[in-house]
Every structure is written in structure tokens, then in C-alpha cells.
Amino acid sequence: MPKQPYSGFSSTAIHGGHETDPRYAHLVPIYASSTYVYDTAEQGMRRFSGQEEGFIYSRWGNPTMREAEDKIAALETLGLDMEVKGILHASGMAAISTMLLATLKSGDKILSHFSLYGGTEELINRVLPPLGIGAEIVDLRNLELAESVLKNDASIRMLYIETPANPTIQCVDIEALAALAKKYGKIVACDNTFATPYLQQPFKYDVDFVVHSTTKFLNGHGTAIGGILLGRDIELMNDRVMKVHKLLGGNSNSFDAFLVINGIKTLELRMDRHCQNAERVAQFLETHVQVARVNYTGLASHSDFEIAKKQMRHPGAMLSFELKGGLQAGIDFMDKLKMCVRTVSLGTVDTLLSHPASMTHYGIPKEKREKYGITDGLIRMNVGIEQVEDIMADLEQALA
Ligand SMILES: *Cc1c(COP(=O)(O)O)cnc(C)c1O
Predict the structure, then answer these.
(1) Predicted pLDDT at 63
(2) How close is the Cα of 121 to the center of ligand 1, in Å?
(3) Which of 216, 256, 260, 348 most suits a substitution to test ligand 1, by most atoms within 8 Å of the C-beta?
(4) Based on the domain organization, do 317 and 395 belong to the same domain?
């Protein structure tokens, strides 16, 4: 990409990836066209053989999707002396699937942490094993343990990290883990959904791939499901990864790309407010008599406070807290919320709360989920950008 006449985060979020429209539209149009035409058969041949740049078929990409891809790639590498290529997907899961299937083969294993997005965990545990791809799941905050696995298990091909992770907001040290993985010649992938490129840039370290569910903070308004896969080896991305992506068919579409582009323009403004509010809410909850514990990496009481401080601009907008009264207290609390919204997901402008024990993790045996820190009274919260006084007042009356 050519050098840009700006260097700020919002400037990049607003202008990054934008190309002047041939018909002078201010914003990139929603290209609702499945296919692209050729002036001559010869031009068609040149496009297909890659001799000529140009769009062919929207499963492979189109101008609206391209702007979203280039914008996110610019943000993930802002201030770093490098380029990455992004491929927009139908969902975060589609982006993760393309990455795993493009890089792993039967006999390979993934090394990961036990606190992972539920869908990723199921993909690793249910979909990949019949293909001969296995996994070692350990506590990656224990670097010695991570190194011993990397060193002793030659079948491990990829280190897959997600930080901060669901729903306990645990963080792992990207720099230290990537360095260990590289020492033993492994691929490193990082899910940066919770942090966004505004709070954390995994490519600063030796990470090969970054994935996002753009459904969350990048879109920011909960209007579309989407994902992106970004990779630093441009040749690999254009070749093997693109081939697998095209054939798996987990492509995005122009409408959702347009929504993500719009959302990203206010990412910095939104994140600053999300973060400020989250800090206030965490402090408020920490002193509340009904609350046993608050998991927020901005609090010195969180075990990963130092890691978060080292690799993130701010600890972010996600937190969880534990009610003293257990399961029934969790259900009662959820029922009493008046403004804050009872739902799963995250990254939207409104405050969202979920109760894993009665919702997302309902089917998981209590002993098993408690091992992962998902206790009966745990509430997960995406702190929104409403007036923080209104958020705290709603929590206060629901806790009463
Ligand atoms: C939501 C989420 C995903 C999956 O993304 P979808 O867009 O729902 O497919 C992956 N990782 C994390 C951390 C998420 O929060």
C-alpha cells in the first residue's frame, strides 16, 4: 500500500482502504453484483490467469469487501513497518475455519488455552478430530508448560491464542508465547476480537495470522455477522489461503461489508467511551456487597493485570462478575434489568449482559464449567456507551 498522508487511528479508520469511486460517489457503493464482465474474451483470460488485476466473481472478493479488508489491514499494522492481507468472511467462524484448513493437515495438532470462544472450542474438539487434526489445551499463562509442550510434541503445528478470552477475561502473553512458538518453528494465530486493533496489535509480535469476528466491536452496532482473516505472508495469503477460502465459500457480501466499514469509522470514539465506562462499572461492582468477585483486567486484583497492561492500550470493555447468591441470584439479577439488555454477544453500543450458567453454558456439567471459572453466579458484561450513571443505576436496582 502507498504511504498515506495521515497516521492517526481514526484517520486510518475513516480513510484507510478507500479508493476514489469512478462515478464520484462519496462512499464506496454496495456492489450488489455476483459477477464481473470482460470487454473481450482475451481480457477474461488475462483476469483468470492473474495477468490483469480485476474482480471476477464475488465469492472471491469485490470492491465493497476490498475496502473493508484494506481498512482493517491498515489498522492492524498502523505504525508497524509491515503489510498484511485481509480476507473478509461471512463470520468469525468462517475466517477461523479457512485459516485452520489452509494451514493444517491430518496428523497436525493445535496448541491452545482452555479459555476460548465456545465456537472455536467446538470446532477444535468436534470438527477437526475426524480430519485427523488434534489439539493440546493447556493453561498458556504457564510459559514453562507451554514451552515443554512445544518442545516435546513435534506434531504441534500451530499455537492458537485468544486474548482477552471469554468469559473470564483471561489474557495470555502474546509476545512471550509467539517467541516460544517461533523458536520451535510453529505457526502463530491470534483472535483479536475482544481487543480490536485499537487496543492491541498482535502483528507487533511474531504472529502470522490475526482473526476477528467483525460482528463485535468492528461493526459495533450488532447489525451483521462477519469475520476477517489477516495474514503477514502475502504470498501464502494470495495463494494457498485464498484458494482454500474461495473453495470453502465462507465469503462475506457487500451489504455486510458496508455496515462494517461504517462501524469502523467510529471505532476509536466508541472504544474510548466503552473503556471509560467499563472502568467505572468495574470499580462500582468491586465494592458492591452482593458481588463476590469482578474479572476485569484493569483491576489490580485480576491475575492477568500485568499482561493486559503490557500488550493493550486499555483493558477494554468486557468484564464478568460473580454474584454471591449463585444460580438463583444470577437469574433474579438478569430478570430485573431494565435498560441493559439480556443477551449474548458483545461489541455493540448498548450494554449487554449474559448469565453463562443459565444461557450459553447451560448444557455443560457444573463441575466441568467451574473448572473454567464459569460458576453459577457468573455474569458476563459488555459495557456499552450509554451514560455510565444510567448503566450503574440499572445494575444497582437489579442487585438490590
Ligand atoms: C463471536 C466470536 C467469534 C465467532 O465469530 P462469529 O462472527 O460469531 O462467527 C470468534 N471469536 C471470538 C472471540 C468471538 O467473540
Answers:
(1) 97
(2) 11
(3) 216
(4) yes
Residues 274 and 343 in one domain: yes
Mean pLDDT computed over 276-293: 97
In this structure, the number of other CB atoms found within 10 A of the CB of residue 135 comes to: 19
Q: What is the mean pLDDT of residues 132-154?
A: 97
Domain count, the chain: 2
Q: Which residue has the cell 458492591?
A: 288
Alpha carbon of 346 to ligand 1 centroid (Å): 9
Instruction: Kindly state the cell numbers that stand for 226.
Output: 462477519
Tell me what percent of the chain is helix, strand and coil, each rounded to the nearest 5. 40, 15, 45
| Residue 119 in contact with ligand 1 by CB distance below 6 A | yes
N-term to C-term CA, the chain: 55
- Domain-ending residue, one of 235, 264, 293: 264
Range of the domain at 76: 9-30+61-264
For the cut 90, the answer to whether the pLDDT of residue 395 exceeds it is yes
CATH number at residue 348: 3.90.1150.10
> 294 and 286 in contact (C-beta within 8 Å)?
yes
C-alpha cell at 313: 492500550
| pLDDT tens, position by position, 191-203 | 999 999 999 999 9
Tens-digit pLDDT profile for residues 303-357: 999 999 999 999 999 999 999 999 999 999 999 999 999 998 999 999 999 999 8
Smallest CA-to-CA distance from 268 within 3, 95, 10, 74 is with 10
Distance 120 CA to ligand 1 centre (A): 8
Summarize pLDDT for 33-76 with one digit per residue, the tens: 999 999 999 999 999 998 999 999 999 999 999 999 999 999 99
Which residue has its alpha carbon closest to ligand 1 atom 4?
92
Atom of ligand 1 nearest to the CA of 214: 7
Q: How far apart are CA 371 and CA 292, in angstroms?
A: 17
Which of the listed residues 160, 215, 219, 343 should we mutate to test ligand 1's pocket, taking the one with most ligand atoms within 8 A of CB?
Answer: 215
Domain annotation covers residue 387: yes
Distance CA 145, CA 130 (A): 27
Chain-wide mean pLDDT for the chain? 96
- Is any ligand 1 atom within 6 A of the Cβ of residue 93? yes
232 in ligand 1 pocket by Cβ < 6 Å?
A: no
The best mutation among 163, 171, 172, 213 to test binding of ligand 1, ranked by most ligand atoms within 8 Å of the C-beta, falls on: 213
